[in-house]
Amino acid sequence: MADSSFGTIETDDGLQDWSAMRTRLNSFQAFPLVQKVSAERLARAGFYFTGESDRVRCFSCQKIVGNWRQGDTPVERHREVSPACKFLICAHKRNPLDGHSSQITDYDEEAEAMEFSLRTGEIVDETIYPMVPHMKSEEARLSTFDNWPSWAPARPTDLVQAGLFYVPETDRETDRVQCFCCGGMLTGWEDGDDPWAEHAKYYRNCFFILGHDVGNMPSELVRQRSFGNRCSMETFEERLDSFRDRQHPISHERLARAGFYSTGEQDRVMCFKCGGGLKDWQPTEDPWEEHAKHYPGCSFLLAEKGQEFVNSVQLGSPRSRYPNASSENGFSSHEKASNVMQSEIAQKAVGMGFDPIKVERIILEKIRLSSEGYSKVEDLIEDIHNGVFDSDSDTEDPLKKLEKLQREKLCKVCMDDDISIVFIPCGHLVTCKKCSDSVDKCPICCAVITQKIKTYSS
Length: 458
Description:
Blueprint (H helix, E strand, L loop, with lengths): L20 H6 L12 H6 L2 E3 L6 E3 L5 E2 L8 H8 L4 H6 L17 H12 L17 H6 L12 H6 L2 E3 L10 E3 L5 E2 L8 H8 L17 H8 L8 H6 L10 H6 L2 E3 L6 E3 L5 E2 L8 H8 L4 H7 L1 H10 L27 H8 L4 H15 L6 H10 L11 H11 L12 E4 L4 E3 L1 H4 L14 E4 L4
Antiparallel strand pairs: 1-2, 2-3, 4-5, 5-6, 7-8, 8-9, 10-11, 10-12
């Protein structure tokens, strides 16, 4: 028999609030199948225990799921009965309109559980980097390649500069290498493989790949073997000289000032400080922005441009997973204006109901005047409301103005009722009372909501 504390669970009159993860988790104290499906997994999927058999209900969409079996994935069972559940879309990114929700295999519950634990502070990443400290030196890594297979297409010097050292297997000849920083291993090298690209493809969060200072010790010997009797590339003049007699779609001076020198291979360049490489450049791309986008931890970049600039680039144009792939994934804030609306901040503003044309114009004007975009969507929205950069606001059609104001006041979830609830602690004002009842995370920033305050418009 269910515990008497579950007497209020079935009530849907608003008295019992199941939006908090802890509250849902507590409801499973008498759940009969906790050995088959853990209470934490069910609660994380938005469910609370109804007190009847093994039936659970979503606090958001109110759908009930039962008949649980060993191996069931709560989020996927939830998606099957309620693909449009607002909680699934916000908290688990399971949007039926994105074309992926039907593919069960693309959901990694274990990875999401780890991300949830890290985000809530249940688990703290206390890993000490680098993982293999005695291989911090490029010379030390190069010395491991004495018996590198002659048939392997990847060059030892390229592997070394990508943070990798040779780890042969005792029972057979292989081309296995390991990163001194993250400890990740790679093998099976093929013609055309680029060590930086492969490293970033499989270990995209490696601090060395991201350009952080993890103690890497560059070697003049390695660079001489790679590029001949080349200078250290620490000065602007040395880097500029590396482009002599070479064709490149980007100004040689701009590349050199951003810390890059030519490797001698087509348009590929490398940062003298962090070792990050980029190739397949587009004529409209900005070297500083590409540097910040792909290698945000580079100490030279941070010293020259500052953390604020790096944050602006990272927030305005997410980093590609492949650091040597064409950098056209991002945009040059000065020259690729047409892609401004692809930024996360612009998409959030449009999703909140603001006029896309106005959003684009204000972002471009901000970039033109300050050379930097917006780092927070709140700043963009404030400038929109205050009419900053809006030179034609006085001449705009009053009816159109009224239309825009009315649209901006609508709930960004249902787009029917007016906004009336402020979420605490993030302070976002985005939903009506009805829609706010079904969320425990802010739809804008996904911060956990601790309080919902009713507002009244004059």
